[in-house]
Design goal:
Elements: H1 2-22, H2 32-41, E1 57-58, E2 61-62, E3 73-75, E4 81-84, H3 105-109
Antiparallel strand pairs: 1-2, 3-4
Amino acid sequence: MDDQKNASETIGVQIYKLIENLYPICRSITGDGVRKTLSIIEKIIPVTIHEVPTGTKAFDWEVPKEWNIRDAYIKNKAGKRVVDFNELNLHVLNYSMPVNKRLKLNELKKHIYTLPDR
C-alpha cells in the first residue's frame, strides 16, 4: 500500500510541476504560446503537431492571424504599473489591439473589464 501512496504522491508532484510550467504561458488559439505549450507536452506524451496557415477554411471558420504579445500595462498618474501583463498574462484579453494613450479613469473603464469591489 505504501508503494501506491508513494507513486500517487510522485505523480501528483510531477503534475504540479507541469502546471507550474504551463500556467505562465500566454496562450491563444494561435501563436508562440501554443507552440511552447505543445513542446512541453510532447516531452511527456507523443504529440503530432500540424501547423495550419492563416486564412485556411475549417468548416464554417477561418484560421485567424497569429496573436503574440510582448508587453501590456496600465499606469496610474504616478507612472506605476497597476496592471501588468508580465505579472499576470490574464490581464490582457486575447486578440486585444495595442493602444498607447492617456485616458481618464472613466474613459478607460469603458474599455476594460474590472472587479468593481477591487
